[in-house]
Write a structure and sequence with these properties.
The chain has about 60 residues and is mostly beta strands. It is built from no helices and 6 strands. It is globular and about 40 Å long.
Length: about 60
């Protein structure tokens, strides 16, 4: 497993850190096994350059 961090900003202009976790075992182009989380552990769903919490209460842009 590897990870990387990158900055994101919410609608109020507050900074956040998004962490991308990538499972390299069994990794293929069709099924990359990637997940995204906030530094506090909340899961995110990625849609291009936009990340949202599953409930939609927080939207971040990179």
């Amino acid at each position: 497993m590897s990870f990387r961090q990158f900055p994101a900003i919410d609608a109020n202009g507050e900074d956040h850190v998004v962490i991308e976790f990538k499972d390299e075992a069994g990794d293929t182009a069709a099924d990359p096994h990637v997940r995204y989380e906030l530094a506090g552990g909340r899961h995110l769903v990625r849609e291009g350059r936009v990340f949202r919490t599953s409930g939609g209460e927080l939207t971040l842009t990179i």
